[in-house]
Design a protein that fits this description.
eight-stranded parallel sheet; TIM Barrel; 2 domains; Enolase-like, domain 1; alpha/beta; 342 residues; three-stranded antiparallel sheet; binds magnesium ion
Length: 342
């Protein structure tokens, strides 16, 4: 198996504001694994606040070369990923890029879409949310108009302009809203007051209400909240689910946090056993990594996979949307074709 990789940077369609400032671009790495005349595509996305970058991913991938060179068909993704995971701690986006490329290759070799490896039914995909960042009332209204065909909105709040944001949205639409606080509420009392207010505003659930380490407040809120509470930053990998299983109603799984599709499938299994709800999300990513995540959406309750809709320079064609419902194609592997690869 031969590994090659190229750095890219994503450009957003709109300047995209988030709680910690203005985000203008995200570095990504496109990975190719070649074997038997087939190419498997993978992607690492590295939002700056998570600590990986082009350099760390390149170093990790270089480190993986000698191991991957020894892998030939037929291989077990689980076994390869165990060895990759043991090369170094962390590096979850770099590991995810290898996992995605392995899945793509495996699917192409066996001529099956990856969803079939996990018994996910093509027609059972959820609707994706469409994300709105914190912005002026005018910009929010324009964005809601642009997102007219989407059935569910996702709004990122910051603990400061929360009511203003929700009121602006509600002045134009009554669509259900998924709310992401990104750890923005400072106290559990502030959080419960806001959650009760949001409960009257057709909000579906609240994501990461409190700082990720504050399990005590998360438990306190869980006991009182009229809305389902989802963990995002509090749950990175499979092993983390055990720690938060009694503090949240659901978890947000992202390939870049959990090292890819294989571990995501294990997290889905574990969450189901524990009767936790499942949201599958993404970072700023191209249709490569998002189409990989989309293969697992029939096994999840909600999806937040609008990443490719928010960027200008998508490098792949893959996941589709029909009025916001995720459409999976019948291509083998993760279901993508490259558009441009420099
Ligand atoms: Mg989140």
């Amino acid at each position: 198996m031969k590994l090659t990789f190229t750095p890219h940077t994503l450009t957003f369609i709109h300047p995209f504001k988030i709680a910690h400032g203005v985000r203008t671009s995200t570095p990504i790495m496109i990975v190719m694994l070649q074997a038997d005349g087939l190419i498997g595509y993978g992607e690492a996305s590295m939002p700056p606040y998570l600590g990986e970058n082009h350099e760390t991913v390149s170093v990790f991938l270089q480190r993986s070369v000698s191991l991957l060179e020894t892998i030939e068909f037929p291989f077990e993704i689980r076994d390869v990923m165990k060895m990759i995971d043991e090369l170094a701690p962390g590096n979850t986006a770099a590991k995810a890029s290898i996992d995605i490329a392995l899945h793509d290759l495996y699917g192409k070799y066996n001529k099956i879409p990856c969803r079939e490896m996990y018994n996910a039914q093509k027609d059972n995909t959820p609707y994706t949310t469409f994300t709105l960042g914190i912005d002026s009332a005018e910009v929010i209204r324009t964005k809601i108009k642009e997102a007219e065909t989407f059935k569910v909105l996702k709004v990122k709040l910051n603990g400061v302009e929360d009511k203003m944001m929700i009121d602006v949205i509600r002045s134009v639409t009554n669509k259900p809203i998924a709310v992401d606080i990104n750890q923005g509420w400072k106290t559990k009392e502030q959080a419960i007051e806001m959650i009760e207010w949001l409960h009257s505003k057709n909000v579906l659930f609240v994501e990461q209400a409190m700082p990720k380490e504050d399990t005590e407040s998360a438990y306190w809120l869980y006991k009182r909240s009229p809305l389902p509470l989802y963990a995002d930053e509090s749950v990175q990998r499979l092993i983390d689910i055990e720690n938060i299983k009694e503090c949240y109603h659901g978890i947000n799984i992202k390939l870049m946090k959990c090292t890819g599709m294989y571990e995501a499938s294990q997290m889905i299994k574990k969450a189901r056993e524990l009767k936790l709800k499942i949201l599958i999300g993404c970072m700023s990513e191209t249709s490569c990594a998002v189409s990989a995540a989309a293969q697992l959406t029939p096994l999840c309750d909600h999806a937040d996979l609008d990443g490719p809709l928010l960027i200008k320079n998508d490098l792949f064609k893959g996941i589709g949307f029909d009025n916001g419902k995720i459409i999976l194609n019948d291509l083998p592997g993760i279901g993508v074709n490259p558009v441009v690869i420099d």
